[in-house]
Design a protein that fits this description.
Length: 585
């Protein structure tokens, strides 16, 4: 059945899919609900690796995007739930297949057929298979996988993946994968090496035999698959497997496609559809950064694009090196940012600003280099503010943002054609990530307010109300000048996050009133008035609001213990002082 489907032309194939789904959705859903999850995984595996799509118990069109890593992740996550018979079956299904031909090119041992169903082929300019081009296709596989190996290891400094037991080369199988699948990196419990934590695995890679039915066709599809899947092999073999962090494996590998083969831009398909409407991150900014929904995690390749331009590609590698040393992904990212004087919190808020600055009129020098090719991010309905108290309530997941346009008018009867202000509200609670829970907040706008409000330089007062307020941030922008934020007017030092968790979201920030000098002095004292640290500090201009940072270490480089501390800051001939709490986890 599947081979017949593969041979159908585009419009006929679409009709076939729709008819198939209409005929079988109700039945398949009922069947899925009647079986347990390990049984479902086994059924999906049998269909995928035996080419049998005739079963009606699971929807065969649910392939979870371009990469099949999710299936290996799910099998590994649920390994202890399978019976001994099921484990043996999975081992047979997922082991490398036998093919008629093989060749060794550089670091890779490539297996393939030269006839029938799995025969590889190059595509002509019309996207059709070129007869007798299997050898040229295999040579291209060797070329682009070795190029990826050399770039990752020699240029970027990643560790190479380990080989399977008894093998001198990394195995690649070329097969007719079909549908939208480009390739997959496969590992099993039996592939585990050593006693590392997180565990590490040897693996092998399956790739499509022509890339005819994918977004980036032919050689373009092969190139991005080489970079994407080989980086999965590196992740699993040299850095470790966190079974709940699939999002970061896919995010990083999709970004790596663009690092190695910048001319392809396959990741565009996850940012917008063929009509230019936003997808992924640009449609669902309120879904957690740690979500493993396929299109969303692929679209977050733009996180890598942001990090490499705003900071350095090395930050991503350092995160993987920290994962290798037993830290989960967000904590590993935070450590990598702290090393260069930032934090995951600060980077995420900057990213929220970058994601607002996309589309035809965006600043491709200050923000994403390719930002004009990205869609505008989805926003909530516009709020009209006519200088009387206005409020709205919303909810988002942990480590996510939402954007709300605000139209400032003189009278309630005034019409609003173009909003002139935008507020981005972000939740930065890493402790609540990994769930679909939504957190409510309220945003108030007024003409005046008490000390719970912040006054913006456009004259209005704003206030964000949410449980666990230190995990939240609101950033206001002028829509007619989207490269700038609307700074708030600070009359005294504001400290955040407070209390300060010295092993968590570093650094501790002291936001200051406007200052003309670029440097100041910071003194930290213990509750017994012992001097903890004295240093000259640079005033950082963050969205036009100066601040200084402290990393929670004393003058000897040690993390300070839990307790109450006092600060003194001198800048512009003025002195500010106060106290704050430190909690050392």
């Amino acid at each position: 059945m599947y081979y017949v489907f593969k041979m159908l032309t585009g419009k006929i194939r679409i009709c076939f899919i729709l008819l198939f789904i209409l005929m079988n959705t109700a039945f398949s859903q009922k069947q899925i609900e009647s079986i347990n999850y390990p049984d479902k995984l086994l059924l999906i595996t049998e269909m995928r690796y035996q080419g049998d799509y005739s079963s009606m118990t699971v929807d065969p069109f649910d392939v979870h995007g371009k990469c099949g890593l999710w299936l290996s992740f799910e099998i590994a996550r649920n390994w202890n739930q399978f019976s001994p018979l099921q484990k043996n079956k999975l081992q047979l299904l997922l082991s490398p297949k036998e093919f008629h031909k093989d060749t060794i090119i550089g670091y890779f041992h490539i297996f393939y057929d030269t006839t029938d169903y799995n025969e590889p082929a190059l595509l002509d300019e019309y996207g059709q298979r070129i007869p007798n081009s299997s050898a040229a296709f295999v040579d291209s596989v060797g070329k682009y996988f070795n190029q990826s190996w050399n770039y990752f290891v020699d240029s970027l400094g990643y560790l190479p993946p380990p080989m399977q037991e008894g093998k001198l080369y990394y195995i690649i199988n070329i097969e007719n994968l079909g549908f939208s699948l480009y390739g997959e990196t496969i590992f099993l419990d039996s592939d585990r090496i050593g006693n590392y934590f997180p565990p590490r695995y040897t693996s092998y890679i399956r790739i499509d035999n022509d890339f005819k039915d994918v977004y980036s066709k032919g050689i373009a599809g092969l190139k991005v698959t080489a970079a994407h899947e080989f980086h999965h092999a590196v992740q699993l073999g040299s850095y470790g497997f966190w079974n709940s962090d699939l999002y970061f494996y896919e995010l990083t590998s999709t970004w790596m496609e663009d690092v190695v083969f910048d001319e392809i831009n396959d990741y565009y398909q996850y940012l917008k559809n063929s009509w230019g409407q936003p997808k992924g991150q640009f449609r669902y900014p309120d879904i957690s950064f740690t979500s493993s929904l396929s299109d969303v995690s692929y679209s977050r390749a733009i996180w890598g694009k942001f990090v490499e331009k705003q900071y350095s590609r090395n930050v991503m590698r350092r995160a993987w090196e920290t994962i290798r040393n037993q830290k989960r992904t967000v904590q590993a990212l935070d450590s990598a940012f702290v090393e260069i004087g930032s934090s995951f919190r600060q980077a995420f808020l900057e990213w929220a600003t970058w994601n607002f600055n996309t589309g035809p009129n965006s600043d491709s020098v200050k923000y994403y280099t390719e930002s004009r090719r990205y869609p505008k991010i989805i926003t909530r309905p516009t709020i009209k503010y006519s200088h009387t108290f206005t409020s709205f309530t919303d909810s988002i997941q942990a480590i996510s943002s939402v954007y709300r346009p605000i139209c400032i008018v003189n009278l309630p009867s005034d019409s609003c054609t173009i909003p002139n202000m935008m507020v981005a509200v972000s939740n930065l609670d890493v402790n609540s990530s990994g769930t679909s829970q939504r957190f409510r907040f309220t945003y108030d706008i007024a003409n005046h307010g008490d000390n719970t409000f912040t006054r913006l330089q456009n004259g209005i007062f704003v206030r964000l109300n949410a449980e666990g307020k230190d995990y939240w941030s609101n950033q206001e922008y002028e829509i007619d000048s989207t490269t700038n934020q609307i700074p708030s007017i600070v009359s005294e030092v504001k400290i955040y996050p407070h209390p300060f968790f010295s092993k968590g979201m570093k650094p501790l920030n002291f936001r200051l009133p406007a200052a003309s000098e670029k440097f100041g002095k910071l003194y930290i004292y213990s509750v017994g008035m012992d001097l903890i640290i004295e240093k000259e500090v640079e005033l950082i201009s963050l969205n036009f609001e100066p601040k200084i940072e402290w990393n929670g270490h004393d003058s000897r480089g040690n993390l300070v213990p839990s307790g109450i501390y006092f600060y003194v800051i001198t800048v512009d001939g003025k002195m500010y002082n106060g106290k704050f709490a430190v909690i050392r986890e």
